[in-house]
Predict the 3D structure of the following.
Amino acid sequence: MNFCKLAKLSSVALIMATTANAENVLRWTSQGDALTMDPHSQNESPTIAFNGQIYEALVARDIEMNLVPELAESWTASPDGWTFKLRQGVTFHDGADFTAEDVVFSFNRALEESSDYKEQVKTVSSIEVIDDYTVKLVTAGANPILPNTLTNVYIMDSGWAKANGVEKPQDFAAEEETFS
């Protein structure tokens, strides 16, 4: 057998072996693992990506990076803040209804000292419940970019958090362990 035929045969055998093997192997890579399941504890890419499979924010971004409704149906600006109309009919995993109280709880939690999200929401001086499905994020003055900073501020079930003793974010720096 001449060298060319042997080389061709070897190449075909190698390709067939590689193809067969590739069907049984999944290769996946990531820059790291999620550090916590607490949605307000760590603001870094793997944790945000992981928690984004569990929690939702008031607003999100579409594939073209436009702000789109998520848990909020709409939002309007005023000289002293932003008013968000919330989606109705949303339930948490345990069947509890999503309401404005969950938004207030989550934003107050994100403002806690141990939260890695406090910088994103520090311009919010208070959160007002207008009705069960409307909240106002009050700011010291006009803040035209506030909705842009809220895409990763996830909303928690306040009832679940209180029942499980996780009213404050995990203190990651102190190596605290929690069930959030």
Notes: The chain has a mean pLDDT of 85.
